Amino acid sequence: MAPRKAAATASKATAAAPKKAPAAAKSKKTKTAAAAAPKKAAAAKKTAAPKKAPAAATKAAPAKKTTAASSKKIPAVDSDKENAEATKPKANTKRKRAAEDEAAEESAEEEASPPPAKKARKIAEPKAKKAAPAHKERKPLKAINEPPTTVLDVYVFGAGENGELGLGADRFEGKRPKEVKRPRLNHNLKGKGVVQIGCGGMHVVALTKDNKLLTWGVNDNCALGRNTQWDGGLRDVDAEEEDDPEESGLNPLESTPMEVDTSEIEENTTFVQVVGSDSASFALTSEGKVYGWGTFRASDGILGFTEKIHEQPRPTLLPELKKIKQLATGTNHVLALDDKGKIFAWGDGAQNQLARKVFEREILQSLRPVGIGNLPLRGAKPVKITCGSYHSFVLDSQGRVFGWGLNQYGQVGHRYDPQDESTKVQLKPRLVEALADYKIKDIAGGEHHSVACTEDGKVLTFGRVEGHLLGLDEDVYNEDNTVYEEKNDQKLPHSLFKPIPLEDVPPVASVAVGVDTSFAVTTEGQVYSWGFSVGFQTGQGQTDDVEEPTLIDNTAIRGKKVIFAGSGGPYSVL
């Protein structure tokens, strides 16, 4: 992303965004919104019809019973005499009651309001309180976080088969809204005042300067926090054949940035950060509160949003979290750092990414934010949290890195030994000794690799060697820094456990990693990318792997100062 030039501002920059889930999981999920929409509509019909039918029957039944009962209570009589005799007591009773009522009225006039009026006041008062929610009158808490204020231009590229690019459903200026090979300005976000972006696996969340939350992309599990049900639209029979597929392939409600449903959010709430996981989104407020929506998934399907909520359709407050300063997300887990340096983790913990053991019989307890405990070194003060797909990192005030979670390629920073199963995961935060010789200022993780940058701007990579994820030449791997594996009677490099600085990259300010694509943003505002590029997510205009860090350069971003890069699975944002 790049800062946007305002009337009184001279500088202009670029912006970027996302984060992604495992490529394998995404490929299973890939589909067009047009195909998904009818299913949602059908589902709605199935659930709505039964509810209305029983309700109508329930109301009708009592009415019939009452009518039948009343007809039985009025006995059939044989003569007018009997009728007269039967009505005498009732008439006397009526006269007595009338006299009593008259006396009661006289007494009531001498005193205060009659009982009916008192009852009306008692009922009305609570209703008035309910009509005016307490949060509207609440005393604001002290702000501990400041919202970003620099307005950004947002550039997108990648496959965008499910609306992740936010370019809408139709061509714009003759260009298709998907399969964008190089950075393209998102015209739907012009004038929206975007100040920050969070990338999920196949969706994006954006925060605007006027405190709005925008989302776009896949909404299968309520990750967008709003209703995107669409009937598929009507085919334009007069449209040219070559244009029709482009106009009907995407759900416009998913592929176009739109506001999140904030009806359950307290008034006067100010947002400062947004993040996205594979199927959920979260927003941090200036008071340190956290709102979330969507759901978490496990290997066998939906895990849930909380212990009691399967899918959360719109933002809801997470009451366990208070005075939070930062949020970070992996594929299906979240970290939160509070103002005292305490770190909370929740979501799917099957790969130990929550820094605690999760037992099958108590698996839903992993959806509750719980502290991970102290870092292993005395005096270590956490200042930054980040996540890979299934692993997590904490950066302390001295530039040291602690990591835990899935480590089968050494992506946590600890050497993986194929002969020792205990090295496949790291349960608790542990100092990444391979980075101990450097002062780290930023670190990011993908599915099987990680990237860090030092205070003096060097870029370090470690983890899986295959697929050019590390951006290194093959001749740098040896027995001193690499774990090898036997494959097809060949000894091949498996994982790099000793980080090696990348060459030919100018001093770097920050790094970002998608599932298997990496980015380095330089101090001068340029961006280098490398890794998996089958969906054009490197921004290099090619589907072959980008073997080494390569400058992203086209007319759209040339001359812009990029200050952010992000990536999901099949898309990326600047």
Automatic annotation (TrEMBL):
Q: Name one Pfam family in it.
A: WD40_RLD
Specify the protein name. Answer: RCC1/BLIP-II protein
Matching PROSITE patterns, A to Z?
A: RCC1_1, RCC1_2, RCC1_3
What Gene3D superfamilies does the database record attribute to this sequence?
Regulator of chromosome condensation 1/beta-lactamase-inhibitor protein II (2.130.10.30)
Q: Does the keyword Ligase apply?
A: no
GO MF term set: guanyl-nucleotide exchange factor activity
UniProt feature, compositional bias: Basic residues: 129-141
Q: Which organism is it from?
A: Coniochaeta ligniaria NRRL 30616
